Amino acid sequence: MSDLLIKNCSVLQLARDGSSAEVLTDRDILVRGNTIETVQPTNLVNQSHFRTCINANGMLAMPGLINTHAHVPMVLFRGLAEDVSLERWLNNCIWPIERHLTPEDVYWGMLLGAIEMIEAGVTAVADHYFYMDSAAEAVEKVGIRANLGWAMFDWMDNSIIEQTSAFVSQWQGAACGRIRTMMAPHAPYTCNDDFLRATVRAAEKLGVGIHIHVSETKQQTQASRQSRGLTPIQVLERTGVLSVPTILAHACGALPEDIEILTKYRTGIAHAPKTYLKLGMDIAPVTEFRQAGVPVGLATDGVASNNTLNLWESMRLLAMMQKFLQRAPEVLSVPEALYLATVESACVFGQGEQLGKLSSGYLADLILLDLEGVHHQPNHNIPANLVYSLRPEDVQTVIIDGQIVMRSRQILTVDKTEAIKRVRSNLNRLALRQKES
Amino acid sequence: MSDLLIKNCSVLQLARDGSSAEVLTDRDILVRGNTIETVQPTNLVNQSHFRTCINANGMLAMPGLINTHAHVPMVLFRGLAEDVSLERWLNNCIWPIERHLTPEDVYWGMLLGAIEMIEAGVTAVADHYFYMDSAAEAVEKVGIRANLGWAMFDWMDNSIIEQTSAFVSQWQGAACGRIRTMMAPHAPYTCNDDFLRATVRAAEKLGVGIHIHVSETKQQTQASRQSRGLTPIQVLERTGVLSVPTILAHACGALPEDIEILTKYRTGIAHAPKTYLKLGMDIAPVTEFRQAGVPVGLATDGVASNNTLNLWESMRLLAMMQKFLQRAPEVLSVPEALYLATVESACVFGQGEQLGKLSSGYLADLILLDLEGVHHQPNHNIPANLVYSLRPEDVQTVIIDGQIVMRSRQILTVDKTEAIKRVRSNLNRLALRQKES
User: Fold this and answer.
1) Are B364 and B336 found together in one domain?
2) Angle B29-B37-B365 (CA atoms, 0-180°, nearest 5)?
3) What is the pLDDT of residue B432?
4) Is the peptide bond before A378 cis (omega within 30 degrees of 0)?
5) CATH number for the domain including B395?
6) Which residues contact B139 (CB under 8 A, 6 or more apart)?
7) Residue A377 is nearest to which of B276, B283, B423, comparing CB atoms?
8) A230 within domain boundaries
9) Same domain, yes or no: A240 and A317
10) How many Cα atoms within 13 Å fall on the side-chain side of residue A5?
11) Does the beta carbon of A122 lie under 8 angstroms from any beta carbon of chain B?
């Protein structure tokens, strides 16, 4: 007996090389445990053989979106730092508040942000923040898939590496494998070479990868060359960071020689265009990365810069900015954008063999979309609608690791109203702590 | 006895110069006929004195958004021309289909597009298309405010000017003033000088303005200089177009000397950033226009390039692209973006004295927003959330010209399901006509 039958939906199907997208109609998706058993024409199986059946008439199924770089608990700071530069944003707005955060704040922030993501069809997130044991508890409860990294700076001294190693040991593979972990040094400009080398040794010993910010701006690349004689990506190579699997956030200031380096390693770029636009940063060379075979994944970054965790907006901005910067509307076509959002983001996330496709043997992380809204009509071109018209509200049902986490827009795993209430009351206490300090 | 009481809402309030935004709580909005009587602290009036009362507890009221340039019936072509250049887009995709359009297609396209706009909080649109008498019928029925222009090209010969003049005579001020009209020559590159001069004479005689595309790209500016010895905006000045009130769509290729010219006339720029990004065009010099005192309004352009009629997305892209292009996150701040979306868009639309503010004597075009969604939490900064987090689904209730057109997301004026059905069946017929031709 299988566990879940998703009956009579359409299914988004991408060509193996991402060059075309089509929609198969009248399909059933059979799920056993946390895995997709098969996707087949409808009515070949009897629904009474399934513990649960979702009637998905008229809905489109596609892989859940994967957020390859975020700081989810920063949802607490939504709207607190608008219209300021990256430097002022960090030094005057974000870092002073973060000093007063508690593990409980992180728990509720992670929970609230995960709800926002699930409501928008995001089924997995690579997160980089503090008190990640609390974040992991929220992830376990809400049912999202996550790759968690506990952020470290070199001024924290090396004992932080032991502490975050203990976090990795405790949580790697937790929640039946739904939670994975990485070591998470902040960036080459905030972690010296010795600190990075010690982190690599820990990651190797633990058998995990590293999630790190790198070359956020061209200025950082220049500054690194002046101070260390190397680009930030060369620093990663020299210190051994690239010898383990990595998620590299941003890389907006990557040079051609950096891209050349990255082709030799198991790595991927997390791309968060809304942050780059809002903070007036450069856009990473997405097309060049992809042409060199370095995968690029969608990311929101934190809500303090993005303002939401809406990954559809990231996809749209990524595609539009490549067209704009190259003054070439043909680049980053609709099928490519969908391929990047699914298959390629799964690679960057580190589970390219298990996520990003609705195929037999893949993990059952999928979403059902209602495309009947006026903003989709007339429905000539569903793939284009997914990239350029879709709204988070169109996501009706979300299944993660075989579990129905949202159905008909109702979150089933946690109490959303309580999460909102707790965030509000915790923030009042946070404001008080700041005032007293 | 007044007509409508909107009870106990918050109200978005912008500084006169657009430099700051605040939210006033516990307000009542009193509407008499199509006009805002007053906005005042709640509970000063007895609701039994009103024909209709909307309890707006916890909702935010703000002016409806104004779309300053669209081709609404092109909603029929959503997704039909993706990943192609502006030239191929026009010559291979759009113009061949448009040849087969009928007035009935335009009616249903206008109706469907107007529903999409209303659902997204857009209360007025300056539209530029064909068979505008049919579009006007749809506008009259659905209840949106519109400034309609019947598109003309010089190859249509001068009788088209008489025909569209007749349209203007018939519809100017219709639907109790909710419908206004303009003459609508397509662009300087598709209308020769004589044709433009004849259009100006007609506009002057009718007492209306002109809505025209101009300098869509830098290439158009160069080509015009080569063929006519003038920039497209200089052509508009020379032919007298700028002597009447104008809406200028795009002006992405405007030069500093063009901006200088525009400061002397009653004109405004309609800015549709999603089109520019998707088609790999240049972004208009928004900051320079505004610094010179030339107002800039939000626009979607047509759905064939934008893919939606979501003006919130236009606002967000406009602000982010200015920050990005100037590598200066301080420019086009949250209050400025909201000012541009309301007060300034009303100016470009041609009703700056009557629209864009919730103030006594202004027309009652307003929207009520539910900001309780998870994607707004915690609600530290409502103005920032309006610019960077809001989704069309947050728009709960839409009032246009004093009439409740949507309430609790239900369109009250027309049958939305029928509109969708009719669009689908008409398009099947359109596909058939194309095949046969």
Assistant:
1) no
2) 65
3) 67
4) yes
5) 2.30.40.10
6) B110, B114, B146, B148, B175, B178, B179
7) B423
8) yes
9) yes
10) 22
11) no
Q: Which residue of B has its CA nearest to A427?
A: B378
Q: Closest residue of A to B387, CA-based?
A: A307
Q: Rounded mean pLDDT of B252-265?
A: 98
Q: Which of A75-79, A399-403, B211-215, B246-250 shows the lowest mean pLDDT across its residues?
A: A75-79
Residues B112 and B252 grouped into a single domain: yes
Cis upstream peptide for A295 (omega within 30°): no
Contact, B289 vs B269, CB < 8 A?
yes
Give yes or no for a contact between B367 and B62, defined as CB atoms under 8 angstroms apart.
Answer: yes
B328 Cβ under 8 Å from any chain A Cβ = yes
> Are residue B396 and residue B288 in the same domain, yes or no?
no
Distances (CA, A) of B184 to B66, B202, B212, B253, B389: 19, 11, 6, 20, 35
Q: What is the pLDDT of residue B95?
A: 82
Closest by CA position to A126, among listed A68, A210, A72, A174: A68
- Closest Cα partner for B402 from B138, B123, B115? B123
Residue A194: which of A143, A146, A157, A249 has the closest Cα? A157
Nearest to B84 among A112, A330, A392 (CB): A330
Taking 50 as the pLDDT cut, the residues of chain A under it are: none
Query: Which pLDDT value is given to residue B148?
Result: 98
* Rounded-to-10 torsion of CA A344, A348, A354, A360: 0
Chain A residue closest in CA terms to B309:
A375
Q: Quick one: B119 and B34 in the same domain?
A: no
pLDDT value at residue B1: 59
How many domains are there within chain A?
2
- Inter-chain residue contact B420 with A310, CB threshold 8 Å: no
ipTM for the predicted complex comes to 0.96
Which structural domain, as residue segments, surrounds residue A36?
A: 2-62+363-411
Q: Does A323 touch chain B (CB under 8 A)?
A: yes
Contact B307 A388 (CB under 8 A): yes
Question: What's the residue count for chain B?
Answer: 437
pLDDT value at B327 more than 70 = yes
Kindly list the residues from chain A whose CB atom is less than 8 angstroms away from the CB atom of residue B82.
Answer: 333-334, 381, 384, 388
pLDDT tens digits for range A8-33: 999 999 999 999 999 999 999 999 99
